[in-house]
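dude i think i finally got it to work??
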Amino acid sequence: MAYTTQVSILPSRAAVPANEEKGVSVGKLRSRSRGLWRALRRRSSPAGPVALPALLLLFALFCISGCGRRTVKEQPLEYSHAAHVSKGLPCELCHATVASEAFAGIPSIETCMTCHQGQITESAQEEKLRRIAEAGGDLDWQPIFQLPTHVYFSHRRHVTLAGLECRTCHGNLQDSTVLPSVAPIDMNMKFCVRCHEERRASVDCISCHQ
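look at this
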């Protein structure tokens, strides 16, 4: 789904509202950053000359790594994005906070039962959904995109403010009839930096690594 609001530069970290911190361990990110910085400054110790290159290499490896494509063997349902998108359902109906917070949100079984309380298709997966709900269970969705703990990413900044389409980062998921076992796009640092440069957004380290 496309969002029409366009900006050429993504906002600074200071512009992020308090509620955007939900779902992101910002405190942990800052703590790790401070710890790394303190370690880098210990060059006066005997181990300093050896430790410094090792720490720099470790940090470089962290930066080069991307979200990581987790291989997921099984999802709770054979969910079809294409079936829902073809009926005109917007992304935010299931991913409720995609336009307002850092975390897009993953639909709970209550979200699904809003529409599927009664039978509306002949799908065996819909019947499976109702059986899970009747048993008091939930949907244990397995994420295929894995954000590293040292990276801060805000859906609000990219979707609402920068006007990016979901497929920019998530590929052709909206056309999929089943959830893939591997993310269709490898969002590594090179991928993100290229996108930022094309849109004249900040590529300062502190913008994403905090």
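Residues 71 and 182 are 5 Å apart (CA to CA).
im so relieved honestly
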